[in-house]
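pasting for ref. prot 1 ->
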Amino acid sequence: MVPLNLPTFDHKTKQVEGKPYIFDLLRRKYVRLSPEEWVRQHIVNLLLTHYAYPKALIRSEGGLMFNQTQKRTDVVVFDRQGQPFLIVECKAPQIPLTQAVFDQISRYNHVHRAPYIVISNGLTHYCCCVNHETAEVSFMDDFPAFI
């Protein structure tokens, strides 16, 4: 896997029938290692170790319904009251972070209504604060602190 613009961490990998797998700390199992999964695992590590987000409040690959279609959010962080706090959309490093990616996470956040959204391809990251009452989105310099 390619080096990312995220802190490295001590990860566990293994081969199953010639295919790479990585241990997912949140799901507590080995999952297929794709370029997007590589980014997701680095983001989860970042949230846990550098920002002290509680592990119990982070969900990976959570389902949601949008326009009667089942979708999956890459990472959702909940606040202490169980409400969505931050959603993260991960892309493989070779995928550019275009308006289409912002549109995708915006559709997911239409359901979740989290105050913060992040998109990352592991090389570039955009963090935004969302005001759902005014529909304003403002870019942030860093990930939000967990409150």
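and prot 2 ->
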Amino acid sequence: MTVPSSLSGPSPSAETVAAARLLLSQMGIAPTDLIGDPILAPTFAEVIPLVRATLTPGTLRTYNTHFHRLLNEWGDRRLDEPAQHELTAMAEQVKVGAQAGGSRSGRGAVENFVGAARCVYRFAEERCWIRPADNPARKVSKPARRSAGRYAIPPQQLADINTAAASTGDDPELDCLILRLHTETACRRGGALSVRPADLDPDQCLIRLREKGDTERWQPVSPTLMRHMLQHARDRKAPQSGQLLRYRNGKPITSRRYDHLWARIGEELPWVAVQGITIHWLRHTTLTWVERNFGFAVARYFASHEDKKSGTTATYVKSNLPEIAAVVAVMTGEPHPLVPAFPSPPRITAAPAR
């Protein structure tokens, strides 16, 4: 609606507009309710493509399966049409499907489904396309998280894992490089898959890691790992701005390589399959070793954790890059360019470089 300039009066301040929006939100009234006929809420098919465009690649991978489900089942429905019990019923279908696919409880799948639904509705709320009162996802609870059953893998078992990877499969060189990268850096799977040749600093033996939460950090690595990553990039013709980890034919690997790797190791070492060990266990293993030998502050920095609940003390006991380089030097038994004098506490078993 256009208001004649003679009747519009002075423009309200930003503070006044914010206060008005807050009051309307508390009353369950959308600004669109105050002008003429109410505007119909958009459909899932209209909103989800817009939501996808705003998400990081990692978040999109997590939610995309559930976006597909919402589009297939409710694509033509408006966002204000489904009730809470309908979303709850769909969450139960997700749980049953995950259990049929091999998940023990289906909790993770349900948690991601609820997160995806909330993401869609939050996007619509922020644009005043629906009212908070018309958002059923607010009322659907995520399942309570259980404590992780992962633990630090003992040195001999870690050595057995590395041996199994090096002696089986169609590309042991790639698999050993993956294991060593995760063992030395404690990076997440997404961090390893995002590494590019441009992220390697061979002079200082540093790798730039980009992980969840849009975090980015330089992580020290051993000269051996750096040498093999550079060689891998050359041999498999990885472009400077493209993914580094690749198959022999030059095609970038995906998360499926990790699935196949651990399935194969599980065939060689049954306890790996029984315990459900994955690449994230290496992160637990390395960070546990770092904490035991170098303390909490160093382990926190090594993991790139920004835990706001750690208290004020964490502000004064921060670690730094040279300390992490010293940890890597001890871990691998190799001097590091950032460490002036080679330290000498205990070592951790790392995957052999091939």
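Residues 107-126 form the longest helix (20 residues).
Confidence is low (pLDDT under 50) at residues 1-9.
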